[in-house]
Model the fold of this input.
Amino acid sequence: MQTYDFIIVGSGSAGSVLAERLSASGRFSVLVLEAGGTDRRFYVQMPLGYGKTFFDPAVNWNYKAESDPGLAGNVDHWPRGKLLGGSSSINAMVWIRGAREDFDAWAAAGNPGWSYADLLPAFKALEDNEAGADEWRGVGGPLHVSDCTDKVHPLTRRYIAACEQAGLPFNRDFNGAAQEGAGTYQITTRNGRRMSAARAFLRPAMKRANVRVETEAMATRILFEGSRAVGIEYQQKGQSRTARAGREIILAGGSINSPQLLQLSGVGPAALLGDLGIPLVHANENVGAHLQDHVGINYTFKGRLPTLNQILRPWWGKLLVGMQYILLRSGPLSMSMNHGGGFFRTDPSFTRPNMQLYFQAFSTVIPKSGERPILTPDPWPGFSIGLSNCRPSSRGEIMIRSRNPQDYPRITPNAYSTNADVDEMLAAVKFVRKIASMPAMAEIIEEEVLPGPSVTSDADLIHDFRKRSGTVYHPVSTCRMGPDAGRSVVDPRLKVHGLSGLRVIDASIFPDNITGNTNAASILTGWKGAELVLEDHT
Done:
């Protein structure tokens, strides 16, 4: 058994940052346990390769949610990264921090140090933004953010023009002064390769003598002496191993794995643990509760102008873009599928946007078994306008099924389980159709393919989005942060209530979901969390 100052469970968006920042001074030894393997795979490094990793068990947990009445009984696929870099190694790379009001609400709920003003310096410090430095953007940081303004498909500009015609202003930077509007997305790439948290933070840290990273090492239990966490039990290559932490254990497994490990270790809902025969270390009903997620849907159109379908589907097109990528690190394979996007309010009385838009200059109506058909789109010129809710009021939970760490937990999203969520999505899909009806888009649309022109009544629109919606892969809040142990799992310094030597530092601590993609805020949480840890161990 070896002892380290800090043990980090998970090498994902937050875990990679923690490893780099906690080891930087050379004063502390750090062990990182990653259940998956290496990120040095072609389809991980190639940005659009995430179509191939979407179902790949070599790099993906491939979770399944429970059958959800809110989604017409569908069983939703929940991909999560199982490799160095975690989900930042298989995500769509869109870089959105969230709205100023999101973080101000966190602070107002009793979490000092988490307001937008508190966090903006950290956001700027961690990024190297290709668009250049200003009041909101940073340069020179470890994580490169690409400005894709001049690289997007030409149809993206028509989409933005249509949004403006529909009353949504142009926004050149969703991470700038204001979030509302339509524009192009910044993405986490550099020189045509994915800029995951592993590439930006973990790989540099792994060069240090005081950092050890164990792959294929699945944490199975937190070891306690009384109420103090002192070690981690993990499985590696069929063997049970143990490591001890002299200072702290930090869970950074994300919104599924962190509550799962707490529950397996006797920290969680007392009745659940009792039923499963798990000795209770500390009762907390909030572990695994308060699950929030963004749910989205695409409206798909057949166009009169060529889209990426015409270049990504035929063999000669695949060869062409493949050579372009290999030789020049450019072209469609060096991008995300989301070229454009935006944020809008379904009710003008709202103080911030509650809906997010995505524009994709290709379509994937025809499914392909075994992969997300990004690299094999439809045989006709298609494109999609997608959207997702930003702050749904529906709440779910993630709870273990058994004492066996290999058994996936029960994921119960409860999507669209409130009238408010249904009403705002109904208003949102109508706005998507309004965008499509504007002259800039209408003149190039031959027909609406999904859901189709026959779907017009409110009842039919609701039935359609229940049937076709799904997660957009932003689960949060299952170990939520707050000052009140009766309503949260960790305190504002991310220490687990009622225990010592144990923190959770990942997206599961979000008090509420943010307005937009969650990866930037997850990385920020790792950065901020490392500051808190270092302050306590000076």
About this structure: Residues 98 and 410 are 28 Å apart (CA to CA). Residues 419-437 form the longest helix (19 residues). The mean pLDDT is 97.
